[in-house]
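Troubleshooting log. The previous run stalled partway through. Resubmitting the same three chains, unchanged.
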Amino acid sequence: MSGKSFFVDLTKCTACRGCQVACKQWNKLPAEETRNHGSHQNPMDVSAITYKTVHMKEVADDKGFMAAWLFFPEQCRHCTEPPCKMTADAYDDKAIIHDEATGAVIFTEKTKDLPEFDEIREACPYNIPRQDAATKVMTKCTMCLDRVQNGLKPACVQSCPTGAMNFGDREEMLALAEKRLAEVQKKYPEATLGDADMVRVIYLYQMPPKSYHDFAVASATLPGLMNRKAMFAKLFGPASRNKA
Amino acid sequence: MKLGRREFVKLTAAATAVTAFGGLGFDLAPTKAHAQLMSLRKGKETTSVCCYCSVGCGLIVTTDEATKRAINIEGDPDHPINEGALCAKGAATFQLAENPKRVTKVQYRAPNSDKWEEKSWEWALEEIAKRVKSVRDASFTGSNAKGQVVNRTEAIASCGSAAMDNEECWIYQAFLRSLGLTYIEHQARI
Amino acid sequence: MTNHWIDFKNSDCILVMGSNAAENHPICWKWVTRAQEKGGMVIHVDPRYTRTSSKSDLYVPLRSGSDIGVLGGMIKYILDNDLIQKEYVLSYTNASFLVSKDFDFKDGLFSGFDQAARKYDKKSWAFEMDENGVPKRDMTLQDPRCVYQLLKKHYDRYDIKKVSAISGSPEDKLLAFYKAYSATGKPDKAGTILYAMGWTQHTVGVQNIRAMSIIQLLLGNMGVAGGGVNALRGESNVQGSTDQALLFHIIPGYLPTPRASLATYEDYIKSISPVSKDPKSLNWKKNQPKYMASLCKSLYKDIEPAKAYEWMPKLDDGQNASWLVLFDKMHKGQFKGFFAWGMNPAASGADSNKTRQALANLDWMVNVNIFENETGSFWKGPGMDPKQIKTEVFFLPCAVSVEKEGSISNSGRWMQWRYPGPAPMGESKPDGDIIYELALKIRELYEKEKGAFPEPVLGLNVGDWGDGHVFDPHKVAKLINGYYLKDTVVKAADGTETTMKAGTQLASFVFLKDDGSTCSGNWIYSGSYTAKGNMAARRDKTQTPEQEKIGLFPNWTWSWPVNRRIIYNRAAVDMNGKPWAPNKPVLAWDAANKKWLIDIVDGGGDAGTIYPFIMQQHGLGALYGPGLNDGPFPEYYEPLECPVTEHPFSKQLNNPTALQFADEAYKRTVCDPRFPFVCTTYRVTEHWQTGVLTRWLPWLTEAQPQMFCEMSEELAELKGIKNGDKVILENLRGKLWAIAIVTKRFKPFEVMGNPVHVVGIPWHFGWVWPKDGGDAANLLTPAVGDPNTGIPETKAFMVNVKKA
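Second attempt completed without errors. Output:
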């Protein structure tokens, strides 16, 4: 498996949110009407017009003092075997496409004709897909495929000051991830890479992924949503639907 | 001339323009980013420096030559300080320029009025010049109470501005001091 | 900044104190991260755990306003444990200077204090001079009147227990901080300080920075790569606007504003010509007469400098015309007209209610801005009745930065040229065009009608500003650089003579003359636009391997002065020209060719011939600084509004010389149960200053939509406040609402045995926009200021907080 990948070194993220705004700038996405919810984070979640948002979580030590302030720039992981596409293919194999050269998973305008948005959303182990209420088109991060195909880095990666966001050939990114993991583990023994073999957005966590975000890694089992294992069973099991 | 990364990218973009999305055979959604890239190829690139904090990050501004409006503003990868990076503010510079809420005509608020009125530049500059002159002439102090020469007016004050360019700041202080102002202050004091 | 942004990567220990660099200068964190990757340590000292703390190796909490306690504790730690860089301290600082026998310090007051005038007579603080007029020195540092011994004695009171008791910083954290930072006293190690308004916005602002400068000198951290004292400036050109002297007390190039008692040009020239009898002291400021003459010629080309001086406005002796005084006078009705040019004082000045009322006392105001703001529209703001307000307002729309051409100077003194992209939107114009056109209009009126003392208006050299209609930034940049006004023969080092034709651009300030034969609008920018062209527009990243090692980029844009990238760099080498840190040299002395390599050397001359701190009269770094208004050593004082009635260092609670207005004392409280909480103000990444250039950008208001108040879980519980609740903050100056962010990142401080709660609010919001965004933090801040700068104390004051 080759193509492209992101490596996101969360130990270096300062939550400057350059990536969050650069994404909107490049894609010319409108802003959401937000309120302060008692946090610096906003928007609180990805949406049809927000492909990327930086989650912020405070972690205390046993005495109640700050142990870490964790930042998690969330985006589509561009799965190597994307379950959203597998689900959509049952209806229209051109609704969600998987770019061979880069591995980017792209929602096309044809997603508006897919019968069940919830089915696509629930297929995603990371709870990423969103739908435009008016057009019914489904949306998410595009990997800035237009930029990537023209030799530019995705807007979010170019915007990152500290080296938290990296992008390149998958082998190179995996090697960088492993190298950084080994370094980071010296300071943070719990450090891990999230789902590195299954996704093209590989996060390096200094603390257990769940402390960053409920949907940080696919192993999460949440009420109302299937875990990845269950989902694959559903996709390939006898109950799997035929193409429409 | 040695090509910087930025120029290199531009050439690549031009070379692959035809094949960019051709291979897929259908439209992508969202299509706006696609349009963005297409218009960038037609745009004129200029360099600038971020107007927010004092790090001095380099920007590349792409302007549509027909409309003279910005199409895209992002970090300059060749700039040694930011190497293409921008924070939330810098990354939002596009919306500073292309913002429908900008005031683009001179406004005037008359004494005791509750509204703004649109005015011409010619009118406003004439009226301001008259007021400056009359206040200056009425308040000009050649010598202070001790009889020392001071050549000043203490009836006009100015605050501003760190948001101006060096050349603008310099002529601004020269202009104010030629009128005799001593109450000249700006952001550096607060 | 003595150093520059990329240089942070060369540091072994980065102290972020009085700043929140990762949030407010986010891209600099690239270079902080590089230092960390090489094993450098990052320490953040702040009342609140921020995004900066989250990326630091050590976070030390302190109560806002107690910095001098914490820094004084470090000075004591360094001296007690003898961690100073000895050769550096002996050779490059005034540690060995003897101070006058009359100098004294008792219970929080230095000698010479005049209680009635709240001012010091500084005579007794002077150095003792020998018969040649050179300061007397004791190189053994044993004399009880030498600076080193006085320093030791002064900070002997700052033991860690007292420091911890007053700052609320835990002792173990303080010790870890002191130990890590003072390790940079080794000659080959460098420590740097990144500070910002967290240090300046106090009534002890200058002394906060002085305390750190003392530490930097003791540890030999000035002049070296990865060291220095680095003020992270808040605006893209606040360095440049200060250099160009948009301040009452200076004229371009940091020359002092003329004063009434300096009646003639000769008087003024004498006052700016310091003398040093020490042959090793270069005493650079002795050149100031050349800079003044050239400045006069840039303003008034056709008359002699002496005449131009006569025309210049003069302040009365001792007169303070700084911001707080200006608005106090405006409030009292002194001003008829006011320019709020690219500024929003109704939100940015301390005590906003006072500022907003002051604006109503004007006849007219000119407000130049990109967006509507609280200043231009003050007459329709909260509590205002437009019918009762006479002030006429002219709002002139200006272009945004990417629509115009010119240079700005970043915090690292890099003067960078910008080009226009889009055209100015609608009828908006670049500020330069507006100033130029207005100046021409006023000139026309004076030509036509004459009037009071028209000479300086009519004589102004506007010919170098544009083509008669349109402003030309290149012409002005050339004027600022300076050029020959007469054909001049210039002699090179090898004796060859060249005739420079009148009109030729000067190569640097070295060529400026005191006889009126050269002009230069600002000597420190001389060298920026030479016969070779616009240096600020350079984009050449070529470097020698040594330059590349420390990231100097000498061919990228231009840095003042004379393209020197690290100032005081002569202190990076010993008296033989050998770098203290051979692994990251800033200078190297090529003895064979008698040449300095790597950076542009400070001062010139052979190795070992001059002292490194050339802008000081005596050439040496000032551990003892007899020039400031509040003492030669930083001393601990509480903010003017504070949560304690005493502190452990003296009986003097506050800075006795702080700038304050007697008729406003009633608006301030100390230990008043009605206003029990310390409040501090700050910025967030997503907004800037009063928010005029960010609140209107939907992507930024999306990320930070509303005024908030951060507070500890403990305080929230005490006041029955839940996260996300709307709360009211108030004191005797004002009131505002905010959304509560209840967080572990704020913790109550234990101060002298009692719990003290600190809350924090950002200052970017205002009533104009967004509609439910909130109003300015400055509604609550006091109009009191530092005695040296007049900068207001907006970082520590008292409030009450309650659920709305």
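Takeaways: Chain B has six helices and nine strands. The helical segments of chain B are 5-15, 32-42, 88-91, 93-97, 121-139, 166-179.
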